[in-house]
Amino acid sequence: MVRPDVVLHAFNWKYQEIIDRLGEIKEAGYGAILIPPPLYSDVHSDHWWQCYQPKDYRVLLSHLGGKKELEELIKQCHSSEPQIKLYADIVINHMANEDRGDRLDFPGEAELANYRHNRDLFEANKLYGDLNEGLFSGFDFNRTGNIQEHEWWDRERVIYGDLSDLPDLMDSPWVLLQQRTMLAALVDMGFDGFRIDAIKHITTRMIDNFADSEALAGSYLFGEVLTTNDEEERIFLDPFLQETWISAYDFRLFQTIRKAFEMGGSLRKLARPENENNGLPWDRAVTFVVNHDLPHNDDFREFLLEPRDEHLAYAYILGKDGGLPLIYSDHNESVHRYHQDHDRWYDAFKREDIKRMIRFHNEVQGKEMTMLYESDLVLVFGRGDCGLVAINKGGEHTSVEFSTHCLKKSSVYKDLINNNEMTISGDWFTLSINPRTAQMWLCQSDLAVNDGV
């Protein structure tokens, strides 16, 4: 079996909690974990967005934990068999929005005094550098003001403007050196890769500065190029794909999934998305059904799938070939504003349907995907000669007939999601699918011995 690669986004989890739950994470079949930004942020605030406002590159400390816990987490992940990779979310577009007179000095005079007063604490959590000195000053920022509503289609303004008063770093030699040094130090600690936050807001020069650095050779890099329509893809995503080599969240596929599952949409759009420019190239895509921005931001909540469609969409991204699937699992952070979110993604990482889908994904990794049946409401495709995925988004029971040319004949298959069994024989087969359900079948001879999942 190919090495597990599904990424768990442990959103806003404390590092010690991840350490304590590594057994559960491994048992669920994950191959990697994405943690929130570890750079120094306000330790007295547990708001999820606080980690996205760094105060200093040279310190690893937040309300989620510090350097000691991170070192232990890396050690535990890498001592697992098979090894679990650890990715860190990194913010390099901007620094924290702080209400103080020297708001463009980082970490600022008050924080430097705090370093001196609590020297042992900050030296223990130091990543690199001399904490007696400041890191950035007003000379290190693009001072062009906030991006205005009418400017969100202007790529230059999106790159050089401020996001909601967050000081926007320029790509000067000093800033680039600090970013390169910070990421190299994280690699030395043992991090296997990085998600680059708000990457459509930074210059290609800033991206190339770390992406092409020798220290990061071998690291997995992916960025958040947040787009919601074809025009934004043309302005931001297409240049990113042309000008860089790193991977990205597959917002293009996500929008295709969303439209396919909406009323009047067609699942045919998901049959060959990459060929029809409805998804990123298979080797540059981080696929997802929900990410942390969608539940927490008013502007993006309209893009959330209905819970049942979310289940079906997970079957699709974990059943299909290509892309690196990411599973979002939170602690009800969005419930404070949106009560309907209660327990929707809480501990989603170990939800039984998700675990069964990951098991299917791990079993069929690298096996060819063959489309067997497609209509507006139903999609059926094979994975190699031992896997079969069926999705019915419609509200009625349906039966579909398809050729079995790519599957093992006269073999018993087990549906991992619903725990049913069937025998496939002959050149044609008729499959029955209940309304609003997905099936993921594996040939019994290819199933692991433990049938409990």
Automatic annotation (TrEMBL):
It holds the Pfam family Alpha-amylase_C. Its EC number is 3.2.1.1. The keyword Hydrolase applies. InterPro entries: A-amylase/branching_C (IPR006048), Alpha_amylase (IPR006046), GH (IPR017853), GH13_cat_dom (IPR006047), Glyco_hydro_b (IPR013780). Residues 5-361 form the Glycosyl hydrolase family 13 catalytic domain. GO terms for molecular function: alpha-amylase activity; cation binding. GO terms for biological process: carbohydrate metabolic process. Keywords: Carbohydrate metabolism, Glycosidase, Hydrolase. Signal peptide: none annotated. It catalyses: Endohydrolysis of (1->4)-alpha-D-glucosidic linkages in polysaccharides containing three or more (1->4)-alpha-linked D-glucose units. Belongs to the glycosyl hydrolase 13 family. This is Alpha-amylase. It comes from Crocosphaera watsonii WH 8501.
